[in-house]
Amino acid sequence: MTDAAKPPLNVYLCAPRGFCAGVDRAIQIVELALERYGAPVYVRHEIVHNKYVVEGLRRKGAVFVEELDEIPPSDRQPVVFSAHGVPKAVPADAAARSMFYLDATCPLVSKVHREAEIHHRRGRHIILVGHAGHPEVIGTMGQLPEGAVTLVETEADAETVEPRDEANLAWITQTTLSVDDTRAIVAALTRRFPAIVAPHKDDICYATTNRQDAVRVVAPKVDAMLVVGAPNSSNSQRLREVAARAGCERAFLIQRASDIDWDAVGPVANLGLTAGASAPEVLVEEVIDAFAARYAVTVEEVRTADETVSFNLPRELRQPAAE
Ligand code: SF4
C-alpha cells in the first residue's frame, strides 16, 4: 500500500521509556564477563525480564540457571546474579561452593536491602509493599531472617495486617510498583500505625516513576496504548495499568510486534507507545514498523523527564584484565 492510500496515524512515543540504568548495567555485566572470562558465563535467573535480551545473551554464551546447583561443581566460570537482587543465602551458597560470582543487583534494589537491614538492627518489624513471588521481593525478604518482614500486596492487606509490635514498624517497597497504588497502601498503613517509619527517599525508583509519568500524560490523548515489555516484568505491567487508569481503555502489554492483536487494538488515529525498563528500543522500532505497514505514521516523542542516571560496574569488571 502506498502511504497516500493508508489512513494517517499519530504515534505518541513516551519518553523516558525502555532501558533504565539498572538494566543497562546488568546486561553490560554479562557482556563484559563474556568478553573477559569467555563462555560460558552462568546467569542465575533471567538477568532482566526480557526474552529478547535473554536470547541475545544466550547466543553469546550465557547459560541461564534457576539455582546454583545446576552449575557443574568443577566449573570455575563466573556466575552473575540478576538485576532483581538475591536473598543473602545465594551469595553465601556461592562462596561455600567456591564460585566466582558477579552481582548485577541494581544499586537501587541494594539500597532497599540496606534500609531493611538498618530497620531490623533497630528492632523494627518491616512491612514490605510488593508482589508475592516476584524475584525482587524474594531477594528483599531474603536479606533478613524469616518473620522479620511481612509482605503487603494490596490496600485490603494494609487494612488487615496485624504486626507483632505496632509501635516498632517500618515500611519499604518493591522498586517497580504503581506510584498511585503504593500511595493508597501507604496511606492505609500510616493511618493504622501512625508511628510507622517511612523510607528517607521513595523506594519506587526513578525509572519506574518517570515511565509512569510519561504514560499518564500520553494516555488521555490516544485511542490505544501499547507497552512493550514482558508479562513477568512488574514495571511493564504497571505501565499498562497506569494507561488504562489515565483514560486509555485499550492498553495492551506486548512482547514484540508479532504480539499485536490488531482486532483488539482496532482502528486508531492516535497511538501511545512506551516500553518497560527491561525492553530494548529495537522492539519499539519493530512496533512502529508494523504500524507503518498499515498506516501513514507520524511519530512524536512526548518527553516528561530527562534521565542521566548511570551506575558503576562491579569492581572486578572495572579493573583491567590480567595479562
Ligand atoms: S527498574 Fe529501577 S530498580 Fe529496577 S533495575 Fe531499573 S533502575 Fe533499578
From TrEMBL:
Co-factor(s): [4Fe-4S] cluster
Q: Which Pfam families match?
A: LYTB (PF02401)
Active site (UniProt): 136 (proton donor)
Where is [4Fe-4S] cluster annotated to bind? 20, 106, 205
Please list the reactions this protein catalyses.
Answer: dimethylallyl diphosphate + 2 oxidized [2Fe-2S]-[ferredoxin] + H2O = (2E)-4-hydroxy-3-methylbut-2-enyl diphosphate + 2 reduced [2Fe-2S]-[ferredoxin] + 2 H(+); isopentenyl diphosphate + 2 oxidized [2Fe-2S]-[ferredoxin] + H2O = (2E)-4-hydroxy-3-methylbut-2-enyl diphosphate + 2 reduced [2Fe-2S]-[ferredoxin] + 2 H(+)
Q: What class of enzyme is it?
A: oxidoreductase
Identify the InterPro entries for this entry: LytB/IspH
Cofactor note as given: Binds 1 [4Fe-4S] cluster per subunit.
Give the pathway annotation.
Answer: Isoprenoid biosynthesis; dimethylallyl diphosphate biosynthesis; dimethylallyl diphosphate from (2E)-4-hydroxy-3-methylbutenyl diphosphate: step 1/1; Isoprenoid biosynthesis; isopentenyl diphosphate biosynthesis via DXP pathway; isopentenyl diphosphate from 1-deoxy-D-xylulose 5-phosphate: step 6/6
What residues does isopentenyl diphosphate bind to?
A: 49, 84, 134, 233-235, 278
Keywords (alphabetical) are: 4Fe-4S, Iron, Iron-sulfur, Isoprene biosynthesis, Metal-binding, Oxidoreductase
Q: Which GO terms describe its molecular function?
A: 4 iron, 4 sulfur cluster binding; 4-hydroxy-3-methylbut-2-enyl diphosphate reductase activity; metal ion binding
**Which residues make up the binding site for (2E)-4-hydroxy-3-methylbut-2-enyl diphosphate?**
49, 84, 134, 175, 233-235, 278
Gene3D superfamilies in UniProt:
3.40.50.11270, 4-hydroxy-3-methylbut-2-enyl diphosphate reductase, catalytic domain (3.40.1010.20)
Residues bound to dimethylallyl diphosphate are 49, 84, 134, 233-235, 278
**The enzyme's E.C. designation:** 1.17.7.4
The GO annotation for biological process reads:
dimethylallyl diphosphate biosynthetic process; isopentenyl diphosphate biosynthetic process, methylerythritol 4-phosphate pathway; terpenoid biosynthetic process
Purpose of the protein? Catalyzes the conversion of 1-hydroxy-2-methyl-2-(E)-butenyl 4-diphosphate (HMBPP) into a mixture of isopentenyl diphosphate (IPP) and dimethylallyl diphosphate (DMAPP). Acts in the terminal step of the DOXP/MEP pathway for isoprenoid precursor biosynthesis.
The UniProt entry's sequence similarity note says: Belongs to the IspH family.
State what protein this is by name: 4-hydroxy-3-methylbut-2-enyl diphosphate reductase
